[in-house]
Design brief:
Two copies of one chain form a homodimer. Chain A has 414 residues and is α/β, with parallel strands linked by helices. The first copy, chain A, folds into three domains: 173 residues, MoaB/Mog-like domain (Molybdenum Cofactor Biosythetic Enzyme, Chain A); 77 residues, Alpha-Beta Plaits; 151 residues, CinA-like (Maf protein, Alpha-Beta Complex), CATH 3.90.950. Chain A is built from 13 helices and 17 strands. Chain A has a six-stranded mixed β-sheet, with helices on both faces. In chain A, helix 1 packs parallel to helix 5, helix 2 packs across helix 3 and helix 8 runs parallel beside helix 13. The longest helix of chain A has 20 residues. Chain A is elongated and about 85 Å long. The mean pLDDT of chain A is 95. At the A-B interface, helix 1, strand 2, helix 2, strand 13 and helix 9 of A face helix 1, strand 2, helix 2, strand 13 and helix 9 of B.
Chain lengths: 414, 414
């Protein structure tokens, strides 16, 4: 079964706003074996919408419209889909009465324009919207002799998700052949995309029944594995077997085999090993700490640290001798190590993590170019320092540096 | 003139990836008076691509394809567009030689599949790609008797932007009637969306020639104003007049009238007033510092600070007496003030900014619920403390708190 998702709304054709609902819908449709083959974005213009609806009905089995169900003049998804299908709209007095009650509860009187939200395409099943006024509609229709399922869904993400989850997904699944789909996500760091692919391609090519998608993100590579089989156990077995072979090949470059983020993984390891961490950040300016503390419960293993942007704070908060900074420069192996050791001592944490580097775009020299970052991790026995040169702009350099720093903690605790 | 943007790539039909190039292209097309009326996302399937190309050619004057120009078997945008237009593909030996040289520079031999990147649609102008191997193509074609402009652009954002900016925008502009479009963006904080709209709607309704779009983002409201007129001066005058009236109405709730971020604005004010800032963050865990230091040049006014996640670091790094924490609790007006004053003193900055609160989802009590945050700003004469209760999840609460904290600095320096 093939689906087309249509996002309706003139704001989605401006430089400021983007459809995001379709990512959620795609995931849930894939879960029941439905492939999304086209996505279309169209404004609140009836003529355009009729045209888009006709094209979609001619090329997909399931057509999902999102948005354009509100009360304003602009909202014309109902009218356009009815026109494309050659069906009539009928106003349902029960829906209108429900909207009136919704207004009355708040002490308001329903304005006349709201009544159009009670217009139902002939033969459609009305899908009540618990989170908003405009109900959805489910139409089992025919187009050019073919059976089609057409869904009209509200645009606001929380309304759409609640409505689709509670009233569409199971109904859709029951109309399709049973599907057993298992997915897993591996995350890899420290390898380039082409290098990673060269090592894993010979493996996943032996699993033609597992769909493997490799995506490069900043500082990590994501491998999405998906298998469809006659039973859940069979699909799970194939995905797990492929995961296991990839993990054998890539070793500890794989930092997650269930989609967890680097900061979550570092948290798991710190908690498992009963260790605490403190940071001293220069070029990343708080990014490493912000990532660590984005995880709920991080106070169990993260004590805090210092943002040592100025040289004087490197001394005041992390105890780095001013002479050391003068001798080697703030961006140096020596100062990175002193920062890590200093913050570990001041905070009484088990591990002290430090970064100093040049995020750019200014401040680079021939000897110490933009992108040069020293990462240091101090433990009770020794301090490890890693020097890296990252490509990209300020934002990317800072992100790469934070990823490398967190990965040092992970590798130390493996 | 109407444009359709087509994003090509099977990964864009998964739950993991989304087209973002179209936002940039839409902005640049709007700049020259071209409206984007449809966006389509299609996989690397030749049959689907030909179908999408034909539909787009029948309904738009300018059709922009992004992606599918690479060397792999999957990449078939060139072939599909040629088929839809009924034109031939011809291999250009100069392009192939160029790709061979690109490989040779790195000491590699070009593999055979790369040669297809030299295939050019008959009559197309080749657009060299300075940042990648696959060149773009510009086709002035006809479809169903109508003149069309068709652009084939590479998918990677940095390649697409460089190529479109340098080789397409001016060429496109020269073919269109002159347009004078002026845009400005106001940013507002501290007001709800409906409250803001209620106050500004009576104003912008008196400027029907200025298109006003109000968008709510976390912790701020963006007002996008755009005017098209017979001359740049006339358009500028109308937009500026509207900006001025909105600023009169909203006062210092408007923090930016040129689209700058809160962290940029805070940076401008600190530099203008010749002041330095230090932070002590508990619940935000480094987010405020990360935002401040995301701005290049922030070392001129930001010295750093402390992430005082544990109580003992509140004492060790910001000098907050342990008894104060014991008496009032870490999340309290008193501890916030002491953190701000303590970090100001330790860092010798002019201003000390501090946050302590409960980001959740756990850790809340009836008296101190999730979302409660105390913000403090210490200067040379006094310390201001603001108590807020933010809605939303951990991520949103931290973001709202960082925005409120930065806004305190801004308002103090106004």
């Amino acid at each position: 079964m093939k689906a087309e998702i249509i996002a309706v709304g003139s704001e989605l054709l401006t430089p400021f706003r983007q459809d995001t609902n379709s990512l959620y819908l795609t995931e849930r449709l894939n879960d029941i074996g439905v492939e999304v083959t086209f996505k279309t974005i169209v404004g609140d213009t009836r003529e355009h919408l009729v045209q888009v609806a006709s094209v979609a009905l001619s090329r997909a089995d399931i057509v999902l419209f999102m948005g354009g169900l509100g009360p304003t003049e602009d909202d014309c998804t109902r009218e356009a889909v009815a026109e494309a299908l050659g069906l009539e709209l009928r106003r349902d007095p029960n829906i209108v009465a429900g909207i009136e009650r919704r207004f009355a509860v708040r002490g308001w009187k329903m304005t006349a324009n709201n009544a159009k939200q009670g217009d139902v395409i002939a033969g459609a099943t009305v899908l009540p919207n618990a989170k908003g006024t405009a109900p959805g509609q489910w139409i089992a229709g025919r187009y050019e002799g073919q059976e089609k399922i057409i869904l009209l869904l509200p645009g606001p993400p929380h309304e759409l998700k609640a409505l689709f989850e509670e009233q569409c997904w199971e109904r859709l699944r029951s109309k399709l052949p049973p599907q057993f789909i298992v997915r897993r996500e591996l995350k890899v760091t420290g390898l380039g995309e082409s290098h990673c692919d060269a090592r894993v391609a010979p493996i996943y090519q032996r699993f033609p029944d597992v769909q493997t998608t490799i995506l490069a993100a900043a500082g990590e590579i994501q491998l999405h594995l998906q298998c469809r089989a006659d039973s859940r156990a069979a699909a799970q077995q194939r995905v797990d077997a492929l995961v296991s072979e990839i993990e054998d090949e890539l070793g500890d470059s794989v930092f997650s085999d269930n989609g967890d983020s680097m900061e979550q993984i570092v948290g798991y390891y710190l908690e498992m090993r009963n260790k605490t961490l403190a940071v001293a950040e220069s070029c990343t300016g708080g990014l490493v700490a912000e990532r660590i503390t984005s995880v709920s419960g991080s106070s169990r293993y993260f004590v805090g640290g210092a943002i040592v942007y100025s040289n004087s704070l490197k001394t005041a908060l992390a105890g780095v001798p001013a002479q050391l900074i003068e001798k080697y420069g703030a961006v140096s192996r020596e100062v990175a190590a002193a920062l890590a050791e200093g913050i570990r001592q001041r905070s009484e944490a088990n591990l002290g993590l430090a970064l100093t580097g040049i995020a750019g775009p200014t401040g680079g020299t021939a000897e110490k170019p933009v992108g040069l970052v020293f990462h240091a991790l101090a433990g009770d026995r020794s301090t490890e320092v890693v020097e890296r040169r990252f490509p990209g702009d300020r934002r990317l350099i800072r992100w790469f540096a934070s990823q490398q720093a967190l990965d040092m903690v992970r590798r130390t605790l493996l």
